[in-house]
User: Fold this.
Amino acid sequence: MASPDALAGHLASIVQSADDAIISKTLQGIITSWNPAAEKLFGYTADEAVGQSILLIIPPERHDEEAQILEQLRRGEAIEHFETVRVEKGGARRHISLTVSPIRNARGEVIGASKVARDITDRVRGERERAELLAREQAAREEAEALNRSKDQFLAVLSHELRTPLNAIYGWARVLSDSQLDPKLRARGDDAIFRNAKAQLQLVEDLLDVSRIITGNMRLELRPVGLKPVIETALDAVRPAAGAKDVELRSTLDPAAKTVLGAPERLQQVVWNLLMNAVKFTPRDGRIEIDLRNAGSQVEIVVRDTGEGIAPEMLPHVFERFRQGDTSTTRVHGGLGIGLALVRHLVDLHGGTVTAASRDRRGRDVHRASARGAGDGARPVRGRRGSRRIAGGPARAGGRRRP
Ligand SMILES: Nc1ncnc2c1ncn2[C@@H]1O[C@H](COP(=O)(O)OP(=O)(O)OP(=O)(O)O)[C@@H](O)[C@H]1O
Ligand SMILES: [Mg+2]
Assistant:
């Protein structure tokens, strides 16, 4: 059997050559030994570490941890595979797995502790990266699912929007097939068929515009355009819908507003969509204002309405395709939720920006929308829509007719 000296030497050489950091300390937390692996892990040499407090390698926010460890050791308890963080000489943090065992004297009293520390930084980092990856993947899946749901919803809305005018056309066509028909009724029928077919055509054209934009096939022929006539034409087009609800239309159009480089029909489409939304979401006897003015080197169009505005959670999404504040099947307003998506793309194609805004519940004008198009140095359109949300439940305003 080996002598005690030989055994001690043997143990010392095991400690010296171990891959794990092995440290011993007194019950007061003073370091008494420090092996080469501890030098490698924490960056301090044995000379630097021995005699120092163990707090040397414990981050300040974890100093409490040491008090608890010492408490446990005094009771003679070991701590196994405790995962924590220690700090190396340069200040960098390392994740370690710690096993601490009490050291007893010949009488069995606890006089200190030995610590075995294993660097698990790579493992913890790997775990963290995996968790982040998983979270990202989950978020992407949820987004895809939400998109899928909104596509389903869109299909339902689309079917409904296509069916409504078709029903009217079908109904009137049947009425008109009666050769004995009263001429007045015949005229009404002709008109209804014409209006509904036009509304449906418009809907399909808007859808085609959306897909043209998505596939990058929307081409604009830009030329210098005065925005005043553009706005006036759009106003004429929404006047019947506004009149039907006794909604007042006010315009303040600066005759000195700069011309812009744009496609007039498309700019009209932008203004019409903003105005039509204002009409649609403003209750009876409300008011819509549209301003055209120069704003520095740019031209700005601002549309405001006295409707109830856009809910704050909806506000960041109004320019997304198929996004509507109310997608329930019983919703009062028609539409596919593509008007503002078209607005944004068209304004983009003109090199401008558009933003939406609404008022808060107390009626303060904090939410606004603005659009800006690019021009020949004099840059064009900026539209702003401050609005309040609908109070009552008026019938849908005016179908999808455009100038
Ligand atoms: N002036 C407004 N006041 C209140 N809410 C608005 C206003 N303009 C837009 N919104 C909200 O933004 C949503 C998206 O508007 P967008 O014009 O894209 O679609 P839509 O008007 O519902 O349908 P579409 O324009 O395709 O007929 C609307 O459904 C509505 O919830
Ligand atoms: Mg709209």
Remarks:
- Residues 362-403 have pLDDT under 50 and may be disordered.
- The domain at 4-119 is CATH 3.30.450.20 (Beta-Lactamase).
- Residues 273, 276-277, 335, 339 surround magnesium ion (ligand 2) (CB under 6 Å).
